[in-house]
Amino acid sequence: MKIIIAGAGAVGTHLAKLLSREKQDIILMDDDEEKLSTLSSNFDLMTVTASPSSISGLKEVGIKEADLFIAVTPDESRNMTACMLATNLGAEKTVARIDNYEYLLPKNKEFFQKLGVDSLIYPEMLAAKEIVSSMRMSWVRQWWEFCGGSLILIGTKMREKAEILDVTLAELGAPDIPYHVVAIKRGTETIIPGDDTIKLHDIVYFTTTRKYIPYIRKIAGKEEYADVRNVMIMGGSRIAVRTAQYVPDYMQVKIVDNDINRCNRLTELLDDKTMIINGDGRDMDLLIEEGLKNTEAFVALTGNSETNILACLAAKRMGVSKTVAEVENIDYIGMAESLDIGTVINKKMIAASHIYQMMLDADVSNVKCLTFANADVAEFTVPENAKITKNKVKDLGLPKGTTIGGLIRNGEGVLVTGDTLIQAGDHVVVFCLSMMIKKIEKYFN
Prior knowledge:
It is a single chain. By secondary structure, this protein is of the alpha/beta class. It is 29% helix and 26% strand. The protein has 16 helices and 22 strands. The protein has helices at residues 10-20, 33-36, 39-42, 55-60, 76-88, 106-115, 123-135, 169-172, 213-219, 238-246, 260-269, 284-289, 305-317, 333-338, 347-356, 437-441; strands at residues 2-6, 25-30, 46-49, 68-71, 94-97, 119-121, 142-146, 151-157, 179-186, 189-191, 203-208, 230-234, 252-257, 274-278, 297-300, 322-326, 343-345, 364-370, 375-381, 402-409, 412-414, 427-433. The chain has a 6-stranded parallel β-sheet with strand order 3-2-1-4-5-6, with helices on both faces. A 6-stranded parallel β-sheet has the order 14-13-12-15-16-17, sandwiched between helices. Strands 7-8-11-9-10 form a 5-stranded antiparallel β-sheet. Strand 15, helix 13 (305-317) and strand 16 form a beta-alpha-beta unit. Helix 1 (10-20) crosses helix 15 (347-356) and helix 7 (123-135) crosses helix 10 (238-246). It is globular. Keywords: Ion transport, NAD, Potassium, Potassium transport, Transport. Residues 1-121, 228-345 form the RCK N-terminal domain. It comes from Bacteroides hominis. This is Trk system potassium uptake protein TrkA.
């Protein structure tokens, strides 16, 4: 595929690096030569200094041969303009990064497609949804639902009280077991399980159905964790606004920000159930005064990764059971995990995995990046006569580093064994090491 990425900011650069590993034909364009200078020498991609909203610039990068044009500059209107131009100059498919929620409403989808913008992506909204998912259960690091919750993915850290420590997966893999271990993160290593044993401090990813969540909680030794009712957010960013809007009604939210003008703006944007506090979120005395010790979840969303990590560490020390940090510096993600700060949110990785699914030929409704685990999970819909329906799972010869976490058949979540025969129409949830989805795709064509 020929893919043109407009905008060498955080999202564009990360996406270009990811896709260049896949041997795609990648062109990264930006009108700031300095942003591009280090990239082309270190990665298998071409950089072009040109404006994405210029017709001559788009012609220069060969827009008429582009299979996918992705506009991810910080300027929403520029992205929209670039996509409209790209479509009219011959690009096959376009994606624009936006920051206006109204554009995403289903009634507007056809309108934008007529203009030449096929897909819209709002990284801050995707990040907020992920934060809210991770807070639904205080004992869970990552939580995702497939097909409206028919199948659920839970990532949780093994502490001393876990019942499944030092037990081999072979022993856990009895035919009637109500879950499937699909990935293990151990230190810096990600394991797609085979003959492995669960160890202390592993982050274990389970797939299960909703009725067995209490059972997973029990075997993970997390029954004493309090449910999240009170949430404190440090930093009044766009992600914070969306998070406050998405939390369930039973959660009480406080946002702390030191900019009085932003606090006034937050008061206008959010309803009365969200309390806005003007003050320095790094001031522990202020946070304690505002009820930090009675808070079950603390979310750090300032623009500074180091501040967010340190704030979560301090909140943990104060007894907060659930902490979430926005860590935009990818180099810090491993450090954040080693410090055990809880859930890490990186909006460029979330945005990249969302865009990545648009490149796949198979029918993929969901691609998620497991931030800590350097692994991806994808939900495929199985067409008639697909290769994956020809044999039992154990005889399919799936690539090393991949596993099937479960499937949804007629709206019911089903856990998969080696003897399972996958059928046309099934929704199949596949786990694999990062950027291997393309290798699995052929089984679903």
